[in-house]
Write a structure and sequence with these properties.
Length: 204
Amino acid sequence: MKEHNEKKKTETCTYETQIAQLTEKMKEVLDHKRMRHTLSVADTAACLAMCHGADPYKAYIAGLLHDCAKCLKNKKKLELAKEYDLPVNDAARENPDLLHAALGAELAARVYGIQDDEILSAIRWHTTGKPDMTDLEMIVYIADYIEIHRKPLPLLEKARQSAFSDLEECMCIILESTLSFLGKKGAAIDPVTNETYAFYSNRA
Ligand code: DGI
Ligand code: FE
Ligand code: FE
């Protein structure tokens, strides 16, 4: 028992050190508003993980890094996507900001030393979602939308209410809101965003 407690203590300490170091690194690459959003996503993701039986430390770290590529200039995003051999589809050519999720996962692994595939995948899919996500992936996707500093978005209250009871229902609500927003704007829709919505609305 004592040994088990010691191991738990070491694991928690390791996470605490890692979180402190990554927080400092994010302050260097994110502007003030993005940092505020980032910390709020990390907190919200950790709470959702506690509620749904996922690992709150992994959720916090994924939240902390999810937008690590967001503040790069679009030109730089395209250059790095090429360097890392990431696919650039029509939607990403029109709006290179869409690349920040895939680039974020690459940077998390290459620059910030994240080796955990569950965390990397949650970062990778935080913008479009994808069909059949893990709980951790849904948690980061949802936390990104519902965190308290988000400016009011359609269906935000509904999404906040369902996030702590039904992750899949919450995915549906957010995707409905995002697709309607993108449709009104006439923005190119990433095919994966449509696939994700089709997947979760068929299960509802
Ligand atoms: O990075 P954040 O702003 O915190 O949030 P995010 O990573 O979810 O990115 C949000 C933006 O991404 C929002 O303006 C909607 C947009 N988005 C999500 N799916 C698609 C999309 N934009 C386009 N053009 N196509 C999509 O399929
Ligand atoms: Fe993002
Ligand atoms: Fe975000």
